[in-house]
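Design request, tokens follow.
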């Protein structure tokens, strides 16, 4: 029996279906109790007959709901029979307003609110209210149509019993709903906690995975660099090494994007400010982009204001990351025409002293495929790429712009876009920067320094045969890469695989 009730009212069924069964069961109990009390007080068969019919109908509906799960249709039948038939019939055969029927009307309205929804709710509510008002209207103007309930004691007992039954029924329904809401709230909180834990676990996984992947990639990049430095390379080997270098840098860029995203989601991304030369930063960005543009036969135009200060305070690495994202996207999505880098500065009025804030504005304009107007609002979302079929040959995760926008906002700036589909786009980065040295850089047209033709040729900057260097890293391949990269400088390199070993070594030898 316990298993039957658990299956009938348990959590295995939808909430509305369980609510329907509980309401019908409580209504059945209420009708049985009312029938017993009516029999005790000697009410007529005409007065008790609707109760018998209601008991049978309610039991049938509970059975149909349990076996066939047709609770929606059963709900409509119950509401129509009770509100349009049983209650009006009882009103005229059981004393009208001088009985407990008014309270039964209240229960009928409650049923409508509990068991119906959508347009049907309004239809059933309207018809029920009209029926009840009509009963009272007829009872008031034509009292002779109402069969008296009996003596004064019967009237009082019927009203009291009905009030008690309906109150308990409504109370049980409310208690059930409250319990359901509490269970759902508890489940929702549990699921929310699980989602947060899953999100944190995912962020930790991406962060750890990205870090672990970067180590072997850096090893590949470093050892490949040693190959490129060799003066005895055949053209074929040099070409292959350059391909390895390009592919490794692309892979490293993707991994760094994932790592940055995981940091941002975890709220651990930090802006690290320091003094830097904006002219040098621009020169590096231009040199890194110019070659890719020329390989696609694109014009690479540069317009940098002569008012660019000699030194600023900001996060040079993150600014460079944003500019490379914008410029690489411009080159990737432009098949013909040009890419233009335009840099301007703007000072607040009457403020040109050192330590003042100024606005650094960088615009990247291309003549590429452009962006549809309806896609602009999704452009800076994570993992979003548009025109998938058209751009299927273009590599990328769709993270670059999302990360760039978040980085710009962390630095107090912004990124905006103005685009015409199939005609090109202009991305504008604005960043507030602190001026350290306001001396103007002047003419930026340093052709020799901007020439990227020899960027793959290694040039040894110094030798230091007397220098002592200590390299500490827990990854053996990292230590080997650093040792090989320093070989041409002739410095003496000692290696340590832990902090403890490094401390022991510095007790024995002084390192530069």
């Amino acid at each position: 029996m316990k298993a039957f009730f658990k299956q009938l009212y348990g959590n295995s069924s939808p909430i509305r279906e369980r609510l329907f069964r509980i309401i019908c069961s409580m209504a059945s109990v209420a009708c049985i109790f009312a029938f017993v009390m009516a029999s005790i007080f000697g009410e007529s068969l005409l007065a008790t007959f609707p109760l018998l019919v209601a008991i049978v109908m309610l039991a049938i509906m509970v059975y149909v709901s349990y076996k066939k799960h047709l609770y929606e249709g059963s709900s409509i039948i119950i509401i129509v029979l009770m509100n349009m038939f049983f209650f009006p019939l009882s009103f005229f055969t059981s004393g009208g307003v001088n009985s407990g029927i008014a309270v039964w009307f209240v229960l009928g309205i409650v049923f409508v609110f509990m068991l119906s929804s959508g347009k049907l709710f309004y239809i059933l509510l309207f018809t029920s209210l009209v029926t009840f008002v009509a009963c009272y209207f007829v009872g008031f103007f034509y009292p002779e149509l109402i069969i008296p309930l009996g003596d004064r004691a019967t009237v009082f007992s019927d009203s009291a019993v009905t009030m008690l039954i309906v109150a308990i029924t409504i109370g049980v329904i409310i208690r059930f709903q409250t319990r359901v809401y509490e269970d759902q709230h508890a489940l929702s909180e549990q699921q929310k906690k699980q989602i947060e834990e899953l999100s944190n676990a995912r962020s930790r996984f991406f962060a750890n995975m990205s870090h672990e992947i970067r180590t072997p990639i850096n090893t590949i990049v470093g050892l490949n660099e040693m190959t490129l430095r060799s003066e005895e390379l055949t053209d074929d080997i040099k070409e292959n090494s350059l391909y390895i270098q390009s592919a490794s840098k692309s892979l490293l860029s993707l991994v760094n994007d994932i790592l940055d995203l995981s940091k941002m989601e975890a709220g651990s991304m930090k802006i690290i400010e320091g003094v830097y030369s904006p002219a040098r930063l621009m020169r590096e960005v231009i040199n890194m982009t110019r070659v890719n543009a020329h390989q696609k036969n694109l014009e690479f135009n540069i317009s940098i204001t002569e008012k660019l200060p000699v030194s600023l305070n900001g996060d040079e690495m993150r600014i460079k990351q944003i500019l490379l994202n914008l410029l690489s996207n411009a080159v990737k999505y432009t098949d013909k025409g040009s890419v233009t880098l335009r840099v301007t500065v703007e000072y607040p009025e009457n403020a040109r002293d050192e330590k003042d804030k100024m606005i650094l504005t960088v615009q990247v304009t291309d003549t590429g495929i452009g962006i549809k107007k309806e896609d602009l609002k999704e452009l800076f979302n994570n993992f979003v790429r548009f025109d998938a079929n058209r751009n299927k040959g273009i590599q990328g995760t769709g993270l670059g712009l999302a990360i760039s926008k978040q980085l710009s906002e962390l630095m107090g700036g912004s990124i905006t876009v103005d685009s015409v589909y199939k005609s090109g786009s202009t991305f504008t980065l604005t960043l507030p920067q602190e001026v350290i040295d306001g001396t103007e850089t002047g003419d930026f047209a340093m052709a020799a320094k901007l020439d990227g033709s020899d960027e793959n040729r290694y040039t040894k900057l110094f030798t230091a045969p007397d220098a002592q260097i200590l390299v500490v890293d827990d990854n053996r391949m990292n230590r080997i890469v650093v040792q090989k990269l320093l070989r041409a400088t002739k410095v003496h390199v000692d290696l340590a695989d832990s902090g403890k070993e490094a401390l022991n070594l510095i007790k024995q030898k002084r390192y530069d």
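Comment from the thread starter after seeing the answer: thanks! The beta strands are 274-276, 299-304, 309-314, 338-346, 357-366, 414-420, 424-440, 468-472, 492-496.
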